[in-house]
Amino acid sequence: MLKKLFKRSDDSASQESQTTVATPEVVQQSAVTSAGSNNDAGESASSGSSKTGRARPQKTMSEQSAPKPVKPWRREDFAVEPVEGKKRFHDFDLPDDVMHAIADLNFKYCSDIQAATLVESLEGRDMIGKAQTGTGKTAAFLISIITDLLDYPLESKPAKGVPRALIIAPTRELALQIASDAEELGKYGDIGVVALVGGMDYDKQRKQLAARPVDILVATPGRLIDFVRSSDVDLGDVEVLVLDEADRMLSMGFIPDVRTIIRHTPRKGDRQTLLYSATFTDDVMNLARQWTIDAKVIEIAPEQKSTDSVEQLVYLVSRKDKYKLLRNFMQLNQLERVIVFGNRRDETRRLAERLQKDGLKASLMSGEITQQKRVKTLEDFRSGKINILVATDVAGRGIHVDGVSHVINYALPEDADDYVHRIGRTGRAGSTGTSISFATEDDSFLLPEIEEVAGVKMKCVYPDPNLLEPV
User: Fold this and answer.
1) Three-state SS for 5?
2) What is the DSSP pairing of strand 193-196 with strand 240-244?
3) Same domain, 388 and 334
4) Is residue 388 helix, strand or coil?
5) In sequence order, what are the beta bridge partners of 390?
6) Domain residues for 432?
7) Do residue 248 and residue 353 come from a single domain?
8) Which CATH number characterizes residue 202's domain?
9) 115 part of a folded domain
10) What number of CA atoms fall less than 13 Å from residue 113's CA on the CB side?
């Protein structure tokens, strides 16, 4: 760890005096490699006659083989003007491969959690980061990890199944989303990413581990323990450990599994440990102190716990009229992308089936659905093939889909913290959204606690009569 701290400052000084100059031979070889896959298509297009019937002039052999120079990416090509009060990714000592990926994603200015945590995590410190959902926590720890992996490459050939960074997430969807983001941010650095989650083919995941060295391993607790016990994964060389949404792992009963996993990693002090979540209970904070050393606690809390970008409304409705209200609301507003939350699998299953029978493009997302089908459902939701996702809290926790205009709480959550996470599926990354909650004679008593946790007094209204027409 000390080696990393000293090396970072040394690298900054040495970069000013060292400049790599590409020779013409190097540039030419790079261009030949990138153009090779297009040679066949180019030859086909350049031979024969044009649409006008005139014969095209044939190129000489030297002209055909002359490669076009490949323009290397430069940091200067991604210009971001300084803005008072905002931190740019340019302001950190990030490798060009990371900055290139950030430029592709058009990330210009850091969110508050990114600006605050990158300062600490890039220096190798343990950290506990707390911020509202949808504020960029995932990108924050991935940028830090990938920078660490590129700055300090292994001196020897890495072994298969021995990750350098381990990210533990509570749900399959969240783990897969993190892995996808890691691939995007690490694509120019040849970072090997593998996701191990339950509900997917075990042997296929084992083959992925055996195919190449893994730099970043993203996993759910149960499936990771299976791979550790079968000796397909060795956590003895983990340099960075990330626990994402630790509060959810506690509420889902995963802490014993997490303890088991952490015992297989290097001791605290010999690894960097980062914890991120939208909420932290006292129990989670106590666990965090057990797993970290002198961790920097960073809390980015808005004035209100629920985002100001989400309009929140409660419909007071009887149990027997709930479905009519949902069906008519969807039909009258012609919503393009909405997530409907229920509390139980059987409730969400019946609701999805009923919406489908009524001709709406709805699909179910719950723990009883196979992982392959869940992945396909999310793809259909993103592409617009379906516009209504009926989900439980466990399945919905990892849903990060742009353009969700509405979240509808068909049943109020029994855990008030779940409300914050539900409405965090909309109004993300600067956009606005709407949260509609149905409060009936069965669950309206939950509203005061939800309002307290959300930090807002919600408007409660009775639905217009046209929203309760028979369907």
Assistant:
1) helix
2) unpaired
3) yes
4) strand
5) 340, 364
6) 310-468
7) no
8) 3.40.50.300
9) yes
10) 27
